Amino acid sequence: MDGGRRGAEGQQGQRPVAASPLRRQTVTAMVADHIAGKIIGGEYPGGHQIRQEAIAAELGVSRIPVREALLQLEADGLVVIRTHRGAVVSELSAEDAVDLFEARLQLEPFLVGKAIERVSDGGIAEVETSMRAYERAIARGDDPKELSRLNWAFHTALLEPAGRPRSMAVVQTLFNSADRYLRLQIEPAKAQAKALREHRELFEAFRRRDAAETARLLTRHIADAAGEIVAQLRHEAAG
Amino acid sequence: MDGGRRGAEGQQGQRPVAASPLRRQTVTAMVADHIAGKIIGGEYPGGHQIRQEAIAAELGVSRIPVREALLQLEADGLVVIRTHRGAVVSELSAEDAVDLFEARLQLEPFLVGKAIERVSDGGIAEVETSMRAYERAIARGDDPKELSRLNWAFHTALLEPAGRPRSMAVVQTLFNSADRYLRLQIEPAKAQAKALREHRELFEAFRRRDAAETARLLTRHIADAAGEIVAQLRHEAAG
DNA sequence: TATTGTAAGATTGGATCCAATTCAGTTTGG
DNA sequence: CCAAACTGAATTGGATCCAATCTTACAATA
Question: Which CATH number applies to A94-238?
Answer without folding.
Answer: 1.20.120.530
